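Obj: model holo form, ligand = copper (II) ion.
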Amino acid sequence: MELKNAQVKFNMVMDMGLYKARLQKAATGYSAITTLPKCIFGGHRWFMKLSFDEGNFSAEKVFLFDMDKN
Ligand SMILES: [Cu+2]
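Output (holo structure tokens):
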């Protein structure tokens, strides 16, 4: 099965904008590339929501990560 409608969205607690990328099939699994801005207020925690729907099945999951400080 191949996911055709999968995407990731990134945002911060503060309004830094919403960044989206579609997942593309890669050699091993899926990949997505996006560019996130550096927070001028020193925030570094980002949330990434992974979502996909395929036929009548859909799922989403939120992950968090901290951007490098330098
Ligand atoms: Cu910020």
